[in-house]
């Protein structure tokens, strides 16, 4: 059974019909890439899954339970964690306080331990632990946003364009990190403009176009697909 | 200090600059006259300063409520003066009971602590109900809407208390331990003032710890910065907002008791209005939304109010200067809004942040 099932969701911003019946599924342990051009509805899809938005039609099932009407903060304790578009670090909180907020729902004693784990994954953050997050570089903020999302010990991690705005050298690092997180057993739904990199680490992928799923296939096939090559990989 | 616009002459800027010069002139001339006349001795200045500090620490406690709520919702809770009144007023009856049994004078410290907690809880409840009933349903509506509701809620609370207890004043019982004065080098500082200042300081330190160190304090700061991301952390933002109102309420209620023990004129249903506006002034002075700003703003306003009339107004030959405290406070509000709307420590007020 799939960990996440998105069944024909329609999501609106007021009158704007952003998602027009999006369906897909994510199995436990997979890395799924969601690609598409600007305004295709990728962010809206993630916002609907994470509970920030409610679909007007259709449903989201997670772990055998309908979650489309569950509040975002409740979903975190169910194991869904999201790195929002544009990182969304708390600029006035220190690096360490940001990570503490990632572990907000937890009461167990292993938080200190996991903080160390986050610092070993991103040694840069350790050097800057007492610094307010607003003064970090873009790449460091992205590391912080990912580390923070992991602090809740998610089963499903939603990543919205983690490579956005990063220098090419850093982009490789981000995808390596995502791969490492997946190897730890976290299921990943990855939204990316950088389809080339996303499809390299993904198991399967979906192409969104104007609020609908246009193509769905394994990552390997998508890399060979003519339309995908032309439109999203920039290969003629 | 001056911005001469070479390309363009603006009457507004010109008027503001003229105003600046006039104010500086008035302050300098007034102060010079007073100081050179030697009408007020050094000991008297120290006394005024101490009185100002203790009054100011009460403003600071109330101001924190405005600033906490503004920080998290960008909303000015104009019913906060009534939250203060509710705690102060209700606790009069509790204080009378403690006094009748003799406990108040046998164990003054413990009794006052009980009163502070009691008043804090009453005001906290009122603040939470206010948020829950009057403000939460309006969240997301234009900013004017909760403002008008706050004014309505303010009248509602005033007239509820008036209906329950009438419009007369009720005084807090005197506490023997707070009478008398410390004498240091020929200067007498009333015990009550020292008590007020110290209790306010302790409460403010607790608040500082709460906001800076505790988990819920970090969550408050996270919610104030970005509600959506805070939700993605699993933070129940409604709960955090309610908690913030509650903390502001608690501080206001405790300020009510401290105020009642310090000033003899007693409490009535209308008592929240002036301290409410003054504390708001203090919060704006320090930069609304800024916690240390509200603390400093309160102390600053208290001191200016105590010293200003005697130093400046009396020096300018204005009669009855001591009765003009309120003029000083509200002039400060207007001046801050004109010259430095972001306050002493604050960031610029912005419409779009939220
Ligand atoms: N806050 C909003 N109000 C109104 N319309 C919105 C809002 N956010 C997004 N939309 C619209 O919804 C559609 C989908 O937007 P979405 O942000 O999901 O796209 P996206 O695939 O994430 O794009 P990008 O790659 O640029 O991030 C777009 O047409 C967009 O204009
Ligand atoms: Mg997007």
List the main descriptive attributes of the protein structure presented here.
heterodimer, A: alpha/beta, 2 domains, 6-stranded mixed beta sheet, B: 354 residues, mainly alpha, ABC transporter involved in vitamin B12 uptake, BtuC, 71% helix, disordered C terminus, binds adenosine-5'-triphosphate, binds magnesium ion
Mass-distribution shape of chain B: globular
Average pLDDT of chain A works out at 92
- N to C succession of SSEs of chain A: EEEHEEHEHHHHEHEHEEHH
Helix/strand class of chain B:
mainly alpha
What would your notes on this structure say?
Chain A is an alpha/beta fold and 236 residues long. Chain A has ten helices and ten strands. Chain A has two domains: 4-79 and 154-231, P-loop containing nucleotide triphosphate hydrolases (Rossmann fold, 3-Layer(aba) Sandwich); 88-145, no CATH class. In chain A, a hairpin with a 2-residue loop joins strand 9 (204-209) and strand 10 (212-218). In chain A, the strands form two sheets. Chain A has a six-stranded mixed β-sheet with strand order 6-7-8-3-9-10, with helices on both faces. In chain A, strands 2-1-4-5 form a four-stranded antiparallel β-sheet, covered by helices on one side. Chain B is an all-alpha fold and 354 residues long. Chain B has a single domain (48-339), classed as ABC transporter involved in vitamin B12 uptake, BtuC (Orthogonal Bundle), CATH 1.10.3470. In chain B, helix 5 (108-135) crosses helix 10 (237-262), helix 7 packs antiparallel against helix 10 and helix 12 (291-313) packs across helix 13 (325-339). The two termini of chain B are 32 Å apart. The model of chain B is unreliable at 349-354 (pLDDT under 50). The A-B interface holds A 50-52, 71-74, 76-77, 81-82, 84, 88, 90-93, 97, 100-102, 104-105, 148, 152 and B 215, 218-219, 221-222, 225-226, 228-237. Residues 42-43, 85 of chain A line the site of magnesium ion.
């Amino acid at each position: 059974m799939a960990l996440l099932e998105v069944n024909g969701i329609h999501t609106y911003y007021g009158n704007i019909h952003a998602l027009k019946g999006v369906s897909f599924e994510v199995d436990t342990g997979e890395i799924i890439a969601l690609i598409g051009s600007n305004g295709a509805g990728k962010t809206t899809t993630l916002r609907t899954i994470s509970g920030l938005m409610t679909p007007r039609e259709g449903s989201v099932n997670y772990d055998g339970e309908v979650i489309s009407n569950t509040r975002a903060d409740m979903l975190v304790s169910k194991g869904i964690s999201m790195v929002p578009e544009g990182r969304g670090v708390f600029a006035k909180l220190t690096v360490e306080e940001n990570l503490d907020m990632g572990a907000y729902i937890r009461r167990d004693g292993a938080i200190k331990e996991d903080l160390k784990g986050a610092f070993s994954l991103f040694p840069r953050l350790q050097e800057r632990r007492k610094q307010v997050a607003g003064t970090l570089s873009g790449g460091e903020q992205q590391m912080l946003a990912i580390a923070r999302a992991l602090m809740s010990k998610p089963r499903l991690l939603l990543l919205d364009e983690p490579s956005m705005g990063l220098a090419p050298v850093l982009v490789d690092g981000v995808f390596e990190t995502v791969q490492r997180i997946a190897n730890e057993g976290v299921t990943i739904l990855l939204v990316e403009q950088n389809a080339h990199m996303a499809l390299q680490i993904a198991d399967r992928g979906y192409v969104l176009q104007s609020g609908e799923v246009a193509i769905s296939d394994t990552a390997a096939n998508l890399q060979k697909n003519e339309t995908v090559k032309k439109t999203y990989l920039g290969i003629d | 200090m001056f911005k001469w616009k070479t390309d363009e002459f603006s009457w507004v800027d010109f008027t503001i600059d003229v105003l600046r010069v006039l104010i500086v002139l008035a302050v300098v001339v007034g102060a010079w006259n007073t100081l050179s006349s030697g009408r007020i001795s050094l000991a008297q200045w120290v006394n005024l300063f101490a009185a100002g500090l203790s009054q100011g620490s009460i403003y600071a406690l109330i101001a924190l409520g405005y600033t906490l709520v503004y920080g998290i919702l960008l909303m000015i809770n104009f019913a906060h003066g009534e939250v203060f009144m509710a705690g102060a007023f209700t606790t009069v009856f509790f204080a009378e009971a403690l006094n009748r049994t003799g406990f108040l004078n046998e164990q003054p410290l413990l009794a006052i602590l009980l009163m502070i907690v009691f008043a804090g809880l009453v005001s906290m409840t009122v603040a939470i109900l206010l948020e829950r009933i009057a403000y939460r349903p309006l969240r997301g509506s234009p900013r004017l809407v909760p403002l008008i509701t706050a004014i309505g809620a303010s009248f509602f609370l005033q007239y509820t208390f008036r209906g329950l207890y009438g419009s007369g004043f009720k005084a807090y019982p005197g506490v023997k331990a707070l009478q008398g004065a410390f004498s240091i080098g020929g200067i007498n500082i009333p015990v009550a003032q020292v008590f007020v200042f110290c209790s306010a300081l302790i409460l403010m330190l607790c608040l500082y710890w709460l906001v800076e160190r505790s988990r819920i304090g970090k969550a408050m700061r996270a919610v104030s910065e970005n509600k959506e991301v805070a939700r993605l952390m699993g933070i129940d933002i409604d709960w955090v907002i309610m908690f913030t109102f509650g903390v502001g309420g608690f501080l206001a209620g405790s300020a009510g008791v401290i105020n009642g023990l310090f000033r003899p004129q007693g409490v009535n249903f209308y008592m929240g209005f002036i301290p409410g506006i003054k504390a708001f002034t203090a919060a704006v002075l320090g930069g609304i939304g800024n916690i240390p700003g509200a603390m400093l703003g309160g102390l600053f306003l208290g001191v200016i109010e105590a010293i200003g009339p005697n130093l400046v107004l009396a020096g300018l030959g204005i009669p009855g200067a001591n009765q003009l405290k309120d003029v000083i406070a509200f002039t400060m509000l207007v001046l801050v809004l004109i010259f430095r709307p972001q306050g002493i420590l604050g960031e610029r007020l912005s419409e779009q942040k939220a």
